Amino acid sequence: MRVAQKVAIVTGGGAGIGAALATALAAAGARVIVADLDEAAALAVSARINADHPDATVGAGADAADTAAIQGLIALAEQHFGPVDLYFANAGVVGAPGLDATESDWDLSLAVNLRAHIRAAQLLVPQWLDRGEGYFVSTASAAGLLTQIGSATYSVSKHAAVGFAEWLNVTYGDQGIRVSCLCPMGVNTALLYAGQESGEPLGAAATRAVVSAGEVLEPAEVAEIVLESIAAEQFLILPHPQVLEMYRNKGADYDRWLRGMRRYQAALLAETR
C-alpha cells in the first residue's frame, strides 16, 4: 500500500516511535490522527508536523485501550480527513519486573499491549471488509518473538500481540486486509530506559540486555523502515535484522536457547550488583 492520500491513526503518537511514524506518514502525503494518552504531547507533535505539512494531522488525547476512545478517534478521522485506511496500534507499556507484578500491572500491560489491538481491529476490520481494503500495523517487539529479561508482563503481552497480528493476517489477508507486525529491539525512547530507571536489578538487566544486543536505533530510522515495509506489504518488520537469526536459533534448539538466556541473564545481573 502507498500511504499518500491515505488516512491513518497512530496511537502512542506523543513521543518515540509513534511521533516518528506520524511525522513520516505526513511527509509521505498521508493525513494522520496523532493520538496519545498525554493529550498535550499529542497536540505538540501534531503542531510540529503541521508546521512543515499544513493541515496534515490532528492531535487528540485518547486511551488506546478504551473502545469508546478508539471509536472517538475513528470519528475524528472521518470528520477531518475521511475513512480510516491505516491503523497503527503503537501505544505500549513496559510493566513491572519479576513476579511482583500486581494484578493491576498485568491488567494494564494486557490492555495496552494486546487488548488495544483487538478492540481497534473489532471496530475497523468490518469497515475495511466492506471497502475491500485496510491496513493494520501492530507494534510488538523483538521480545514478542524472543523474550524479555525482567518483565513477564511485557514479554507475555508482546508475544500475544504477535500472535494476534498473525491471526489477523491469516484470517483476513485474502480479503484485502493487510497486516504488519513491528518487532524492534533497542530504540532510543523513554520506554527503553524505563527498566533501568526502576531501580530493580531485573529492570536494569532488561535495559542492559536490549542495549547490548545490537544497535540502538533512532525512532525516525524505525519509521522509515516501517513505511518501506508497508509499501512492500511485508508482515514481519525487523529494524534489527539479527532478530531473525536469533528467532531461528530459538526454534532450532529451544532448550539450548533457554540455557543461553539464563546464562546471559545471570551475567547481566552480576554486572548490576
UniProtKB/TrEMBL annotation:
It comes from the Bacteria. Pfam families: adh_short. Keywords: Oxidoreductase. The keyword Oxidoreductase applies. Signal peptide: none annotated. Belongs to the short-chain dehydrogenases/reductases (SDR) family. This is Short chain dehydrogenase/reductase. It comes from Nocardia rhizosphaerihabitans.
